[in-house]
Amino acid sequence: TANYNLYLFNLPVGMNIDIEDKSNALPYKRSITDNEYNYKGKYHFGNIEMSYEIDSLNLISASLGLLGNNYRGKVNRGKSYFIKPNGDTISLSNTEGSYNASSSVSFDGNIDYQRSFAKQGKLLTLSYNFSLSPIDEDDISKIAVDSRYTNPMGILDKNTHYTRKGTSDEHTFQIDYTEPFADKKHTLEAGLKYILRYNASDNAYRQFNAATQAYDIADSVDNYGRRRYEDDIYHYQHIASAYASYLLNLGKFGFRVGARGEGTIQDVRFENSRQSNFGVKFFDVVPSVSFSYQLGYTSNIKLSYNNSISRPSITYLNPFVNDRDPSIVEYGNPNLISERSHNFTLNYSYFSQKFNMNLSASAEIVNNSIEQEVFVKNNILNKTYENIGRKQNYGSSLYLNYNPLMFLSLWMQGSVNYNHYSNKNYNYGGAIANVFSGINVFLPWKLRLSLGGGGSTDDIEYKERFDGWYYYYGELSRSFLKGDKLSVGISTINTFDKYIDYTSRTWEDGVYEANNNFRQIGASWQISVSWRFGEMKAEVKKAERGITNDDLKKGK
C-alpha cells in the first residue's frame, strides 16, 4: 500500500514583538519590531508499507516514509524601533528584503521479521529502524539604520548571509522475545536494543561585499569587528539497553512489572570553535509497573507508572549564534544533560453500542527540565537553553461519544492541566483547560452534516504565557454513484474571522518582558472530492512488536 500528499501554500502573515527592559542594563527601555512576511512553498509526504508471509509462522513487514519541505519567508515590510523611558525614539532600522528559507527531504523506515511458534503467544522479533533527516537553511538578514535618530547602541547597516547545513540520522536494532507459560497466566518478555544517533551542523556566516557584489567570508568578522566562530558541531550518541518484564493475568486482574537498563555514550566534537570536545558516559535503570482490572464486560480500569528519559536534540545543542536581530542573540547549549521523568496514569474506559467514555488522570514529574533562559550580556539579550530544575504536570482528560439515534452522533473531549516549575530561583505554575466538541448528522438524500469547534484557555509554560484561542467549523458532504463510490464535500473554518491573532508573553524576572503577536488569515473554505474505484480484499500485516524511539526532546 502506498500514498503521497502534496501541499502548496502562499500565506501572508504579520508579527509584532514589543520588548520592555526590566534590568536597566540595556541602552533602551523598549524595543519594538513590526514585520509583514509572505511565506511561499510546499510540503510533501508519503509512505509505502509492505508485508510478506513466508508461511504461517514467519512474517516480514517493512515500511518507507518521506517528509519534505521547501519554503521561503520574505519580509515585505519591516521596521525596528528602540525607545527611551521618556518615549523618544533613539534608533530605527528597516529590515525589508530579509528572508529565511528551508529545504529538506527526510526518510524513515523499518524492517521487521517475526517468528511465531506452535505455542500461542510465543514470539521472536528482529527489527531495524532508520531515520535520515538532512537540513538546509538559508537566511539573509538586512538592516538599514535611519541616521536621523541617535544611535547609542551603535547599530550598523548589515547585509549578512547565514547558512546551516545539517543532518540528524538515527539507526536502531532491536530483538524482542516473548515466552508465555502453559497455564497462560504468566508471561515473560525480554529484549535488547541499540541506537546510534549522529547529529551534525555545518554553519556558515558571510558578509555582503559591495565591491564584488557577493557574500564573502569576510574573515568571519561581523560589522562590529567581532570574530565569528562558526561552531560546527558533530554529536554522536550510542545507547545500548536491555529490558525484561513479567506479566500476570488472572482473568479480570492483570499485572505487569519490568525494568530497562540503558548505557549511553555521548561524543561531542567542534570544528572552527573555541569550545573543547568532550564525551559523557552514564548508565540508567528505568522501571515500570501497571495494574488493570476489568469491572465488567464493557469497562475496565488501569493504573500505571513508568520512568523515562528525554535526551536533547540538535535543536537545543547547536551553539551556532543567530544574531539577525541586533538586540538579541540566540544559541544552543552543547552541555545539556537529559531530562528524567516519573509518569503516573489512572485510566477508566467504558464501551457500549451507543455510549463510549474514556477518563484519565495523570501526573508527570520531570527532573533536569530543559527550558530557555534569557540574560543580558554586552548590552544585548542572550537566549539559550539550560537544565532549569523540576517541572511538574498534573492533568485529567475526558472523551465522550454518544449515538442516541442511528442518524445522530455527538462527541466531546476535554482536558485540564496544571504546570508547575521550581528551582532555587523560581517557584510558580498555572492551569490550562481546553474542550473540543462536535455533532454528525446523517440527512436524507445521502447528505452528511458536521458541526463543531473548540478552544483553550491561556497556557502557562516556563516564563511564557500563550493567550487562549478558539476555532469552529462546518462541513456538508454527499455520496453519489452505486456503492457510494463518489463523495463531494464543502467545508469552512472560522468563517466570520478575517484575521486570527495568536499572542504570547515571555519574561525573565528583573531582565525583560516581551509581548508577541502573530497574525494570519482567519476564514478558510475547502472543497473535497474522493472516488473509491475498487475494494481492498487484503491488508498489509505488521509484526506485533516493533521499534518506537520516544526518548528525544526535539523542541517546540
Tell me what you see in this structure:
The protein has about 550 residues and is mostly beta strands. It has one helix and 28 strands. The protein has a 28-stranded mixed sheet that branches. A hairpin with a 2-residue loop joins strand 10 (about 230-250) and strand 11. It is globular and about 85 Å long. The two termini are about 30 Å apart.
**Shape verdict:** globular
> What is the CA-based Rg, rounded?
28 Å
- How many strand elements? 28
Helices, by number, come to: 1
Classify the beta-strand content into a percent band: over 45%
Q: How do the SSEs run, as a string of H and E? A: EEEEEEEEEEEEEHEEEEEEEEEEEEEEE
Q: Label the structural class.
A: mainly beta
The overall pLDDT average reads: 90
Report the major sheet: 28 strands, mixed
**Fraction of residues in helix:** under 10%
Concise summary:
The chain is an all-beta fold and 556 residues long.
